[in-house]
Design a protein that fits this description.
The complex is a heterodimer of chains A (1068) and B (374). Chain A has 1068 residues and is of the alpha/beta class. Chain A has 37 helices and 38 strands. In chain A, helix 1 crosses helix 11, helix 13 runs antiparallel to helix 14 and helix 31 crosses helix 36. In chain A, 61% of the residues are buried. Chain B is α/β, with parallel strands linked by helices. In chain B, strand 21 and strand 22 form a beta hairpin. In chain B, helix 8 crosses helix 9. The model of chain B has no long low-confidence stretch (mean pLDDT 96). The chains are: A alpha/beta (1068), B alpha/beta (374). The interface between A and B is large, with 59 and 56 residues.
Chain lengths: 1068, 374
């Protein structure tokens, strides 16, 4: 069937901010879809609230709306744009839920918008567990036995049938949010309460446990002619019981006979037909009983998913792109396979390598969180590694994690009992414990008994571990042992460690002995056809099939796995670098290991190396490619850490010289720079020991800000209020970074914080944006909300900040991007930090001002002088953009949500409007913190804020809100003539207390500024209840003040939507 | 591990380790891209005369069981993998791949760069080769490889066909039940055994056929004597032109009985119908080939295993029309006679290994017989 001609304009919905369970894989899928539909001549309207994405680049879609992903806002966009169709299957669960809401509230019918890809009944059938169960019964496909509960009593009745343990799955939630496992009635009660709370429709599925069964996923595609193909099978190393997002997974399936696999394939095809997903990709999860092969279906996603991104990268088959084309009428056989060029997309990829996906957790950011892995996803990112064997891929994956792990070991001593405990309960450490269990002499049988991990995977780990003594014995003397070690995936660094030498020596030895990496292609067809896209991975084989071209080329180092502090923003920059290089006629070579990203799409760069970002792996590539240089400043900390070792290995680093990084990081040299330029900075110094640190702290006065040098995302950065805090910190910090000392600065209390992003070519510096934080200094800039242009600074202050940023960029010789963080206190501008590299805000600034900074920077790095972009610096923006951060607290019950200098957010949203308050309002709504217009506001502020809270409270009362407060705050408010409902603190022991009120849904908004330091633990329950009850909360006076302004705007007038293109055109 | 070596006729050498039996084996070296189903492949008689290399690098993971066999023994001349699993991880496994090959005397090779070999065969064509774990000198092996007869024109069917007729009773495989008892038959089919895969017989049986399997050299008269409702032409090894006696028998039977051919059976039908076959550069061996049904426009993902193909133009004038086409390379995947009740497919609707997409063809055959009979 050819392309539909009745459609002209199509709306694509993105997935919003990066959260646990929904990361940049949907930027990847959305970007592919936009490109595919444009290629077919459709007008594409895109909406996504996440400015850090490639898909929201104004060059990509015809109209790009960075607006909240709520039915109200999207309805406004539909009313303005009048698209004929809405493609809902590429924006994750968010996009799908939004489409359902728009269909159900009649918006789509009203404007004559057709859902393409999946229709409403199909979405409902797949998403509603009850309907899904009925559908499966119709086609005779087994599910785990289960029942549907709306109350604890109903749940108990079901468990009487199915027994313990029972799996609790709330309906319509994301990444398994609210899911849990109950082993006894007590846990069941807790699990049901939590699950019902989490489900937007107040229902949970109570399900027979298939914990310990083997878990599989199939990626399925269907077209309008009812052709169905399976793109990829995925087998989880961690058996059922651990969320797929938290499981180590392998592609293709390894332990199924063809008979069993075909049963699963037949089931998948029957399911996609019965559910009625018309076109595109779906993901179906199965469990298989290892004892007898019994197959049950677990769930189906009637849309492109995280696993689809993985499957696309694992096979080279671009699922999202093809899904978009199928949605507009093409059939699979009408679409060409880009990689082979001659064969059609209506086939099933054959792969001739093994792919391992390994999740990346961020528990170091949430030390209080429970690390047990369950059915609710907790990881923040993932890596993928490709090898010719499972063993090689697994070890490559481990070093791709960038957790300074080079082997399958815990890296600490654990006795047999501890190992057993670590094997029994899944945590991020489990697979590493398997390695140590083998070292401790455990048998596969016992490890299997404890972990239920399939013996085939365990044996792979055993083989790796048992080869270590051989490496220690002979790797340096025997080239065959060395080669075998490399084929097993051992890093040079680990070989060096085992054999008692250095990484560099192993590398030299390997080259002497001819044990060098060979590169092979990912080609969808196991080499049956000639491939035209150089999508490569390394292995240690005989043949290298992709010799470098003789074109001038540049290597871009990507940012590795998503983690807190390093996410899609850096991928955005890397992708822009690739685009810029292509424009300049230079071959763009991308190196990255994150399967969720746009950068690892084979058509983003000219050549893609899907490889770990370690010195060894990068040198393997650089030595063969001999590029003009390597770009290290776009991928965040990952490539930055490699800058110096690469330069030492003789690799040209493009742009800002690595020495500038050192000057910005080295305290002494930085002091000199600041003095030389006549700028100010907070008093402080470098400490290498506790006594030194204490002396400095006393000298500058508490509170102080302490951090190890060379960190990103505020890792281990903390506000320290007294000597006891400092001692505790120094004990931990030494563990964090032994090679680098600790920086101690006077903390500038109540200062306004500002971020400036600029691009320079060595001479000219263009200041892209000056961003004023909403929260006062002390909140990590990655967590703080901010506004561009500033909303409270004077013009002269903004000019001063820009001038200082320019001076710093020139003095450091920046070629490329630079980010400067300032604080203003008592009219004095302090330089807090200078980062001569891409910052997290680069995409936000680029979207806000309409100039792709990373592209400009790339050209500068290649020696092109920056063209004057006077309009950027001189004009007054007619709009204001607000960035707000999004946090994962809902996934980590028990973690305090107070923000500090250590970054905790996973993602961000942007609100853009001509009115600051409206822009802020949009940002709040987009961050899923919809502001109330009536109801009760709970106010509890620290003593220092009591004066300021008065004005805020008055404004709230004027708007018709009622106030609720505990004794201290209530007294102050009442003294000023406001009527306040008095409520007990939890600690007072009387009921109802404030928590009861919140749980009863009586509180519409929480204003709580916790005391500093240890005293804040008192109000912890209030904050965590706000998170679980989904009550908007503000923890700083600045945030509260701005929010109240936004509520005023909300009460006063209607909200408007406008595309980025229109904002930018108006400014030119 | 004992060293082993592969030498191709064109002089390319691959060194690895022995797998299965020690010794020497020769044959046409081909690659198969299926990612599962090695046990079915090993026991498929169509691979007689060939050394099979699996492109998926990790083979043997789920071991070998007693059920997933396509004949009574493995038939491949040799077997090549990147890495053979030392353990068998599956509830049905009875032995490891290595032990199974050794027990059946199959010489194997592991640890070579199988992707390099695939690329070589893709670019230079499938060709004769020798695996040896007893002769280390590649020059001598090359000499022997050059003296190998190749597949063209050879009668390999004679090596694999049944010696005497037999009746087939087993039904298809189901989880937890194994091979199930089939329904009562209502049609009688005689199947020419050119090296038939048992799953074809199982599928015919499940479609309601009473199946009698006969040697490939059975004459047309003997077939007619059995008064069957239909004739089935099986898959089998090598060059269809190597079995002229069968072509002649089928030519006699054309138009007199409903006929269904699979793989070699399809080529035999094409030749009996007056057409021409030719050798493909490296054949189709895998489980992911897209085939379009020209009547419905639907695409099926098919299991394939053939090195020769029918030239559809050569039979067009003789009343035949192509029914299916391979979307990868446009080769003919199915034929149908415009008047006679005869049709065939180049691919494997019985799957095993591979997708079940085309299983409905067995019902097409029973419908054809029922129409003819009724």
């Amino acid at each position: 069937m050819p392309k539909r001609t009745d459609l002209h304009r199509i709306l694509i919905v993105g997935s919003g901010p990066i959260v646990i369970g929904q990361a940049c894989e949907f930027d990847y899928s959305g970007t592919q879809a936009v490109k595919a539909l444009r290629e077919e001549g459709f007008e594409v309207v895109l909406v996504n609230s996440n400015p850090a994405t490639i898909m929201t680049d104004p060059e990509l879609a015809h109209r790009t709306y960075v607006e909240p992903l709520t039915p109200e806002f999207v309805a406004k966009i539909i009313a303005r744009e009048r698209p004929q169709a809405l493609l809902p299957t590429l924006g994750g669960q968010t996009g799908l839920n939004l489409a359902v809401a728009l269909a159900e509230d009649g918006t789509l019918d009203r404007f004559g918008v057709e859902l393409i890809g999946a229709k409403l009944p199909a979405i409902k059938k797949a998403e509603d567990r009850d309907l899904f169960k009925q559908a499966m019964q119709r086609i005779g496909i087994a599910l785990p036995r289960s029942g549907y509960a709306r109350s604890f009593d109903e749940a108990r009745a079901i468990v009487r049938q199915i027994g313990y343990p029972a799996i609790i799955r709330p309906s319509f939630t994301l990444g398994g949010t609210g899911g849990s496992i109950a082993y006894n009635p007590e846990e069941l009660e807790e699990a049901i309460r939590w699950g019902l709370q989490m489900s937007p429709v107040g229902t949970v599925l109570v399900e027979e446990s298939v914990i310990g069964w083997k878990e599989f996923e199939l990626e399925v595609m269907r077209d309008l002619a009812d052709n169905v193909v399976i793109i990829c099978s995925i087998e989880n190393v961690d058996p059922m019981g651990v969320h797929t997002g938290d499981s180590v997974t392998v592609a293709p399936a390894q332990t199924l006979t063809d008979k069993e696999y075909q049963l699963m394939r037949d089931a998948a095809i029957a399911i996609i037909r019965e559910i009625g997903v018309e076109t595109g990709g779906s993901n179906i999860q199965f469990a298989v009983n290892p004892e007898d092969g019994r197959l049950v279906v677990i769930e189906m996603n009637p849309r492109v998913s995280r696993s689809s991104a993985l499957a696309s990268k694992a096979t080279g088959f671009p699922i999202a792109k093809i899904a978009a084309k199928l949605a507009v009428g093409y059939t699979l056989d009408e679409i060409r396979n880009d990689i082979t060029r001659e064969t059609p997309a209506s086939f099933e990829p054959a792969i001739d390598y093994c792919v391992v996906k390994f999740p990346r957790w961020a528990f170091e950011k949430f030390p209080e969180a429970d690390r047990t892995l369950t059915t609710q996803m907790k990881s923040v990112g993932e890596v993928m590694a490709i090898g010719r064997t499972f063993k090689e891929a697994l070890q490559k994956a481990v070093r791709s994690l960038e957790e300074d792990r080079w082997a399958l070991t815990l890296g600490r001593t654990a006795d047999a009992d501890e190992l057993r405990a670590l094997l029994r309960v899944p945590t991020p450490e489990r697979l590493f414990a398997v390695g140590d269990a083998y070292r401790a002499g455990f048998a596969t049988q016992e490890i299997h008994g404890l972990t239920r991990i399939d013996p085939w995977f365990l044996e792979g780990i055993r083989e790796i571990v048992l080869f270590e003594p051989e490496i220690a014995r002979a790797a340096l003397a025997d080239a065959d042992v060395l080669r075998r070690a490399k084929q097993l995936g051992f890093a040079d660094r680990r070989i060096a460690e085992l054999a008692g030498t250095t990484e560099g020596a192993v590398r030299r030895l390997r080259r002497e002995r001819g044990v060098v990496a060979t590169f092979k292609m990912v080609d969808t067809c196991a080499a049956e056809f000639v491939a035209h896209t150089p999508y490569l991975y390394s292995t240690y084989e005989e043949e290298d099939e992709a010799p470098p071209t003789d074109r001038p080329k540049v290597v871009i180092l990507g940012s590795g796995p998503n983690r807190i502090g390093q996410g899609v923003e850096f991928d955005y920059c890397c992708v822009h670098a690739a685009f810029a290089l292509r424009d300049l006629g230079v071959e763009a070579i991308m190196v990255n290991c994150n399967p969720e990203t746009v950068s690892t799409d084979y058509d983003t760069s000219d050549r893609l190396y899907f490889e770990p970002l370690t010195l060894e792996d990068v040198l393997n590539i650089v030595e063969r490619e001999r590029p003009l240089g390597v770009i290290v400043q776009f991928g965040g900390q990952t490539p930055l850490k490699l800058a110096v070792p690469l330069r030492e290995a003789g690799v040209p680093i493009l742009g800002t010289p690595p020495d500038a990084i050192d000057r910005a990081e080295d305290r002494q040299r930085f002091n000199e720079l600041i003095t030389e330029l006549g700028l100010h900075q907070a008093a402080g110094a470098t400490a290498r020991s506790l006594p030194e640190a204490q002396a400095i702290a006393i000298g500058v006065g508490y509170p102080v800000l302490v951090r190890p040098s060379y960190v990103l995302g505020g890792r281990a950065m903390r506000l320290v209020y007294d000597d006891e805090d400092l001692r505790e910190y120094m004990r931990e910090a030494v563990l964090v970074s032994p090679e680098h000392p600790v920086l101690i600065d006077k903390f500038l209390e109540d200062a306004i914080e500002i971020d400036v992003d600029a691009v320079a070519d060595g001479e000219r510096v263009i200041v892209g944006g000056v961003m004023e934080h909403i929260e006062k200094a002390g909140v990590h800039s990655g967590d703080a909300a901010c506004a561009l242009p500033p909303y409270s600074l004077g013009e002269d202050q903004v000019r001063e900040l820009a001038a200082e940023a320019r001076a710093l960029a020139r003095a450091l010789g920046v070629v490329g991007l630079i980010n400067v963080q300032f604080a203003i206190r008592n009219e004095t501008v302090y330089v807090l930090e200078v980062n001569p590299r891409a910052s997290r805000t680069v995409p936000f600034v680029s979207k806000a001002i309409g100039l792709p900074l990373a592209k400009v920077a790339t050209a500068a790095m290649l020696g092109q002088p920056i063209a004057p972009h006077g309009w950027i610096e001189e004009r007054e923006l007619a709009h204001i953009a607000v960035k707000e951060s999004v946090f994962p607290f809902i996934k980590f019950p028990g973690v305090d949500i107070v923000l500090g200098p250590e970054m905790k957010s996973t993602g961000e949203v942007m609100g853009i409007d001509r009115d600051f308050r409206k822009a802020y309002l949009k940002a709040q709504i987009a961050a899923d913190s919809a502001l109330p217009t009536s109801g009760k506001v709970f106010v509890s502020v620290k003593n220092r804020d009591k004066r300021l809270v008065m004005t805020l409270a008055k404004r709230l009362v004027e708007m018709g809100f009622a106030l609720v407060a505990t004794a201290g705050t209530a007294r102050v408010l009442e003294r000023h003539g406001m009527s306040v409902e008095l409520i007990h603190k939890v600690a007072e022991g009387y009921r109802p207390n404030v928590i009861d009120l919140m749980k009863r849904g009586e509180i519409a908004l929480v204003l709580n500024t916790p005391e500093d330091g240890r005293a804040r633990k008192d109000s912890y329950m209030i904050r965590s209840t706000a998170v679980t009850q989904h009550i908007p909360y503000y923890l700083t006076m600045d945030g509260a003040q701005t929010a109240i302004g936004a509520i005023e705007a909300l009460l006063k007038g209607e909200q408007h939507v406008l595309s980025l293109q229109e904002y930018h055109d108006a400014g030119r | 591990m004992t060293p082993a070596i592969l030498v191709l006729r064109d002089g390319r050498v691959f060194r690895g380790g022995a797998l299965g039996a020690l010794g020497e084996a020769s044959g046409e070296v081909i690659f198969n891209t299926a990612m599962s189903g090695y046990q079915e492949i090993l026991t498929d008689p169509s691979y007689r005369g060939q050394i099979v290399m699996m492109t998926y690098p990790l083979i043997g993971n789920y071991g070998v069981n007693l059920e997933d066999v396509e004949s009574r023994r493995p038939w491949v001349n040799g077997f090549i993998v990147k890495e053979a699993s030392p353990i068998a991880s599956n509830f049905r496994a009875s032995t490891s791949l290595h032990d199974y090959l050794r027990t059946h005397g199959i010489v194997g090779l592991q640890g070579i760069d199988t992707r390099a070999l695939t690329r070589h065969l893709r670019d230079h064509g499938a060709q004769d080769g020798i695996i040896s774990s007893v002769e280390a000198d590649p020059a001598r092996l090359l000499e022997r490889a050059r003296a190998l007869p190749g597949l063209v024109g050879r009668d390999l069917v004679a090596e694999v066909t049944t010696e005497a007729p037999f009746a087939w009773q087993e039904g298809s495989w189901e989880l937890a039940r194994g091979y199930v008892p089939p329904p009562a038959p209502h049609l009688r089919v005689v199947a020419y055994d050119c090296g038939v895969k048992l799953n074809i017989l199982r599928q015919l049986r499940m479609a309601g056929c009473e199946v009698t399997v006969v040697p490939a050299a059975t004459s047309a008269a003997e077939i007619l004597e059995r008064r069957p409702d239909g004739l089935f032409l099986s898959n089998g090894p090598g060059d269809p032109e190597g079995v002229p006696y069968l072509i002649a028998s089928v030519r006699e039977l054309l138009g007199r009985l409903p006929i269904f051919g699979i793989c070699l059976g399809h080529q035999i039908l094409g030749l009996a119908g007056g057409g021409r076959t030719y050798k493909l550069p490296f054949g189709h061996h895998g489980a992911n080939h897209p085939v379009k049904d020209l009547a419905t426009g639907k695409v099926e993902i098919t299991a394939q295993n053939h090195g020769f193909a029918v030239d559809p133009d050569s039979v067009g004038a003789r009343g035949w029309e192509p029914t299916h086409v391979n979307l990868n390379d446009g080769t003919c995947e199915g034929l149908r006679h415009r008047e006679w009740p005869a049709f065939s497919v180049q691919y494997h609707p019985e799957a095993s290994p591979g997708p079940h997409d085309a299983n409905h063809l067995f019902h097409r055959f029973t419908e054809l017989m029922a129409r003819k009979g009724g």
